[in-house]
Amino acid sequence: MTFRKKLTCLLMAAFCLLSLVSCGREAVDPSRLFQVYFISNSETRVEVHEYVMQSDTLEERVEEMLNCLSSTSSRLAYKAPLNMGFTLLGYRLENETLTLNMSEEYNEMAPTKEVLVRAALVCSLTQIDGIGFVEITVEGNPLYDNLNNMVGRMKGDQFINNMGSEISSYDMADLNLYFANKTGDQLIEVNRKKAYNTNISLDRLVVEQIIAGPGQEVEGLVFPTVNSDTQIVSVRTRDGICYVNLDAGFLNQTYNVTADVTIYSIVNSLVELSTVNKVQISINGDTSGTYRDKYSFSTIFERNLDIVTTLE
Question: What whole-number distance in Å separates Cα of residue 61 and Cα of residue 85?
Fold first, then answer.
């Protein structure tokens, strides 16, 4: 057989193999495709791998996912989050909350490693219909982070990622955010612990969290201040001034709050960062307009504690 014929045969074989793989993927029920999160060998990021779920019931899928999260790769290309030096003692599922009870070795992990494990477990398990939250306990006791704050229930969207094939290094942010009181005329400070991708700047993270709203942990106690449809164009800090560039959705106020509350929920929250002293807000880069006929976008705002109150 000539070299040309051999090459033709090899190409045809490769084409047939690719065709079979493509046909196989098309035959997979999309409802069975899951993204399973593992820890990189360097223990600096979370890796995402596609997995086809075989089980059908909620209980069976929990068991299957936990088994998957316990299995170390045969290629040793990554580490299973439930095989990191501690033992899963048991679990229970109640009211859409899956509680994982770990052995005491769980608390011996370094903080950044623990956050990666926590992110991998929560992001993997909350994909299963019927699981809205994951809670981790250690020997039956609540889990505390490295700042000695109780972690509690977690949702997948608590772990901000870059939506790529990998999640880069996580860190834990301790944010002081300001949301509205019930009457919408004052601000209330809320402390939030957030695992975040270090590719995201803290000033942008703060603005994202304000737009996202108070969250379920303080539902009914504090209230949103910024239209949730607002899109961030850019956020950057230079010489102590944070320049927040939002789209026109910011101008459409959907909540019963004053202009002061909206503006200073952003300003006060950002000034809590050590790198920010003042804030300027623009709309699509334009600072010529005004917000609700009261605040010029050319204004460089400073912290305003006069409208801050406490929970009654």
Answer: 24
User: Are 187 and 304 within one domain?
Assistant: yes
Q: Express each pLDDT in 118-162 by its tens digit.
A: 989 999 999 999 999 999 999 999 998 776 778 889 887 777 554
Q: For the segment 81-96, what is each residue's pLDDT rounded down to a tens digit?
A: 999 999 999 999 999 9
Q: Which residue range is the domain that position 119 belongs to?
A: 30-167
Same domain, 149 and 258: no
Whether the CB-CB separation of 279 and 270 falls below 8 Å is answered with: yes
Binning pLDDT at 50, 70 and 90, where does residue 200 land? confident
Residues 104 and 180 reside in one and the same domain: no
122 and 220: one domain?
no
Q: How far apart (Å, rounded) are the C-alpha atoms in residues 17 and 171? A: 42
Domain endpoint, select from 119, 138, 167: 167
**201-234 per-position pLDDT tens digit:** 899 999 999 999 997 778 789 999 999 999 999 9
Same domain, 153 and 184: no
The two three-digit tokens of residue 56, written as one number: 């059908």
Domain boundary among 167, 200, 224: 167
Burial-class residue 125 by CB neighbours within 10 Å (0-12, 13-18, 19+). Answer: buried
Which pLDDT score is estimated for 65? 96
Tally of CB atoms within 10 A around 3: 7
8 Å CB contact between 185 and 257: yes
